[in-house]
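This part of the workshop introduces the protein records we will be handling. Getting from the letters to the tokens is the skill we practise here. The record below serves as our worked example for the rest of this section.

…
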Amino acid sequence: MTTTATELDQPYAVSPGDVDNYAADGYVKLRGVLSPDVVTHYEPEITEQVVRINTQHLPLAERDTYSRAFLQVENLWRHSNAVREFVFSRRLAGIAAQLLGVPSVRLYHDQALYKEAGGGFTPWHVDQHYWPLSTDRTVTAWVPLQDTPMELGPLTFAAGSHLSGYGRELEISDESEAMLDTFVTESGFRVDDSPYATGDVSFHSGWTIHRAPGNSSTTPRRVMTVIYMDAAIEIAPPANPFQQGDLAAFLDNRAPGTVPDGPLNPVLY
């Protein structure tokens, strides 16, 4: 009998075309990675932990652009056994390993991104600006916990932008939105803002330029993400204050040049 927990650990066949598309575009959207039953089983517990741990309580009108974009709660797996089951899914981790072309991946961290009803847009940005890691062998699984049409703010990608090298010094901000929007438009990258159905999961590279529209609906956009890294990756010297913060929060302040093999970064596949 297949249960929600065992489905999370069953393999998912990534096609050669999916691997090729990921390499070329810096992301891939995979349909039906999880059954709707699995998503709806874990969503209430993830949401409960987001509500419990969240520290952002200012009204939307009083927040800056970044804070209006979403409620951001990290490392939920450390607070709930049920969330741990979800984050430690071998199915999701196995997809990450196949897309990266590595034999094994470990957890960098998880992150819930809940865009409140009426929440603002997420500016164009790249993720790896924040990560003190020695290579770009990283990938983020973006897992919506409900159908995500345009009005809820689906993740939007500039296809192929991970190869450009542009914008890597920019933190997520109004400045990154303006500069990267001009760059994406002038470079002619295909912009993919297609909706997600419950159970669809996208995977994107740390250097892929991406954003999300605001949530114009009356319900929250609930998303869980899991960030994976090549199990052989090493910690790099922090290049900015954000990377220094990540070193402490997610890598246990381990020394540059070492593999992050402590309890915060277990091998998941």
